[in-house]
């Protein structure tokens, strides 16, 4: 059974392509990753976004360990952007990346890249997030 998260999905949809990094925070295991990597991902696919234009990076997976270096992460994402169409970047547990603020700021220069990240570390939440 899937728990509907229409309110949160609609908040993501409303903020699509606005030039800002979207940060999804919360306690561990509350559904942040599921919202982004399943529910929002399905929404993009259903709205004809190509799968190769959605860049998924999970830092719970050991195969992404080398991307914990912010310069390697930047180069990896840059290499994925091969045309002028819109791309969507999902980074799960972004606080694990060394100097993640620098890489996120650098990636914002790509006008055709919409950035979404999740984070659960309380230090991350209180240090880098603002609520409105």
Automatic annotation (TrEMBL):
InterPro entries noted in UniProt: AAA_14 (IPR041682), P-loop_NTPase (IPR027417)
Any one Pfam family match given in the protein's UniProt record, by short name: AAA_14
Signal peptide: none
Ranges where the AAA domain occurs: 20-125
Protein known as: AAA family ATPase
């Amino acid at each position: 059974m899937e728990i509907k998260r229409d309110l949160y999905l609609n908040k993501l949809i409303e903020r699509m392509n606005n030039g800002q990094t979207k940060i999804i925070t919360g306690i561990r295991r509350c559904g942040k990753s599921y919202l982004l990597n399943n529910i929002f991902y399905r929404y993009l696919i259903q709205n004809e976004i190509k799968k190769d234009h959605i860049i998924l990076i999970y830092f719970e997976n050991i195969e992404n360990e080398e991307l914990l270096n912010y310069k390697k992460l930047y180069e990896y994402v840059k290499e994925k952007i091969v045309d002028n169409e819109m791309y969507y970047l999902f980074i799960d547990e972004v606080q694990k990346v060394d100097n993640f603020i620098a890489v996120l700021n650098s990636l914002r220069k790509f006008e055709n890249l919409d950035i979404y990240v999740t984070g659960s570390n309380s230090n991350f939440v209180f240090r880098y997030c603002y609520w409105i």
